[in-house]
Write a structure and sequence with these properties.
Order of helices and strands: HHHEEHHHHHHHHHHHHHHHHHHHEHEEEE
Distance between the termini: 77 Å
Strand order of the largest sheet: 4-3-5-7-6
Number of helices: 23
Number of domains: 2
Structural class: alpha/beta
């Protein structure tokens, strides 16, 4: 019964014609898009330096390197304008760092500058999805709703409030790159822009290394006739793409340690069949109800999700099923691109050593937004077609219900994000809150101490010294460690977690730092004397 109903509804969606009989005037379109962008910006900017709680070391590294590029043209290791930034024994891809430079120039080396970069990249993706949806489905209505859907999705809200600029720069470049290619089929000058933009994606986020190459191959196959017709421009575009890929190929061939290899499924000590089975399990986990709606990543690392919430809204699941079926029943070359994105988006996570991880599958936001908006517009047309003479009433009821359910889900998510997320995501497996207050307290009290000894239980703790107090922490002024670093000949300030203080010393507590939950996170103490 359900499958036959789904098949019928999918056929109606597939057969419905484009709704272009009434094109919105430019001023109305600009007004609607402005409202969407303002809504999206509000959801992302409010309290952005306080929530997510803390400032993760990857964010600090991006901000610090953006600052060194701005002031000296070099990264933290002295390399002039690198394409890959060495960091924590690994490498960060360059686009996200360079995108942060203008914001650091305006707002300084601050948490706000880094996270505002993420917000703006998120807004750029929202604008980009409007253009791509309009080009693929030849409907401004679908374009507008795609932008609205992406603006309010928990998956996108969560990450575009962070300074994870590698991941966040990937989305707008990929979307604009696909848009440029689709436009380039008819206007060949756009092909060059498509080559540049898709080439740049390879320098944003490692998931692009898995998604973009097969996507480009598919585009070449689908549009081979047009590409052959515009042979010279096509070759130029392809040459640009290859040239931009060469530094990545050289990097991976150099033997340098890279996160993509270190955290990859292939490095696991498993047989070939076990790896295939694990890949299949992890791949399908990205289509599970748990990941999409009820529990999100459902792992220890709360940086990636709000516990108890998925990355989409429950109302989207039937819409996605109907939409995929509709695209399959009446495919076009443009629609095949959308279906390909559905197939490709889990690859970045499925080939990792653990799944599901929403950051590595972030490209899933593109087909989700496109298909959800496609189905909504088509369903409105179908209701109009089936519901006469009460079509306006039925359409009004449908739109009211859809908006009501979505708005209720959005409010529920946002309320929990601001009320409960800081309490559950401030610790080690979350955003590791504490280093800012520790280093700033030491900096403000620098006349009273020779050295700060900060707990080393962070990812890349030295980066916080460089970000918050680079000058004061030079020449051993700040170190990571524990009570073994105690030197009676120095006036030291220890900033350790309570459990890391032993009974072998007497202390004077000068300050304490608490997580948003009220739990004591760090005690800032001076050692008075040794008792043993």
């Amino acid at each position: 019964m359900f499958s036959s109903s789904l098949l019928w509804l999918g056929s109606q969606v597939a057969q419905s014609r484009d709704i272009l009989s009434v094109r919105p005037r430019n001023w109305a379109l600009i007004g609607v898009m402005t409202v969407i962008v303002v809504l999206a910006a509000t959801l992302r900017v409010v309290d952005v330096t306080e929530n997510p709680p803390g400032f993760f070391t990857d964010e600090a590294a991006v901000g610090h390197n953006a600052h060194t590029i701005l002031t000296s043209g070099k990264d933290e290791y002295g390399t002039r304008f690198p394409l890959l930034f060495r960091s924590f024994g690994d490498y960060k891809l360059g686009v996200g760092v360079y995108a942060t430079v203008p914001f650091v120039a305006v707002f300084g080396k601050t948490e706000f500058a880094v996270r505002l970069t993420g917000v703006v990249l998120g807004l750029a993706a929202i604008l980009a999805i409007y253009f791509l949806a309009t080009a693929i489905f030849e409907s401004r209505q679908i374009g507008v709703i795609s932008a609205l859907v992406l603006a309010i999705l928990p998956w996108h809200i969560h990450y575009s409030r962070t300074g994870f600029t590698e991941m966040l720069s990937f989305l707008p470049l990929l979307i604009f790159g696909l848009y440029a290619f689709v436009r380039g089929v008819d206007k060949k000058e756009w092909l060059l822009a498509g080559g540049v933009l898709l080439g740049l994606t390879l320098h944003t986020y490692r998931a692009a290394w898995l998604v973009v190459p097969p996507l480009v191959i598919l585009l070449v196959i689908l549009y081979r006739r047009e590409l052959i017709t515009n042979q010279r421009t096509s070759l130029y575009a392809f040459a640009i793409l290859v040239m931009m890929a060469l530094p990545i190929v050289a990097h991976l061939s150099s033997g340098a340690v890279d996160r993509a290899q270190d955290a990859g499924l292939l490095r696991l000590s498993l047989t070939g069949w076990e790896k295939i089975r694990l890949f299949a399990e992890q791949y399908w986990s990205y289509f599970s109800y748990s990941f999409l709606v009820s529990n999100g990543d459902n792992g220890l690392i709360t940086r990636h999700y709000l516990p108890g919430f998925g990355h989409l809204y429950a109302i989207q699941i039937p819409l996605m099923l109907v939409g995929i079926l509709g695209l399959l029943l009446k495919p076009t070359r443009k629609k095949i691109i959308v279906l390909a994105l559905v197939v490709l988006f889990p690859l970045g996570g499925a080939l990792s050593d653990t799944s599901p991880i929403s950051s590595r599958s972030i490209v899933g936001l593109v087909p989700v937004s496109l298909i959800t908006s496609y189905v909504l517009v088509r369903l409105i047309y179908t209701i109009n077609k089936l519901g006469r003479p009460y079509s306006r009433l039925m359409t009004g009821i449908f739109i009211t219900l859809a908006l009501g359910i979505t708005l209720g889900s959005l409010v529920h998510y946002v309320r929990n994000y601001h009320e409960s997320y800081p309490s559950v995501a401030a610790g080690y497996w979350g955003w590791q809150e504490g280093p800012q207050e520790i280093v700033e307290y030491f900096r403000d009290s620098s006349e009273d101490y020779d050295q700060l000894v900060m707990d080393g239980e962070f990812n890349g703790p030295h980066m916080f010294f460089q970000f918050y107090a680079q000058e004061r922490c030079r020449d051993g002024g700040c170190i990571t460690g524990n009570l073994e670093s105690y030197r009676p000949d120095k006036k030291q300030l220890f900033a350790l977690k309570p459990r890391h203080y032993s009974g072998n010393y007497e202390y004077r507590t000068v300050h304490e730092i608490r997580y948003p939950s009220g739990e004591v996170a760090f005690l800032l103490r001076e050692v008075i004397n040794a008792t043993k």
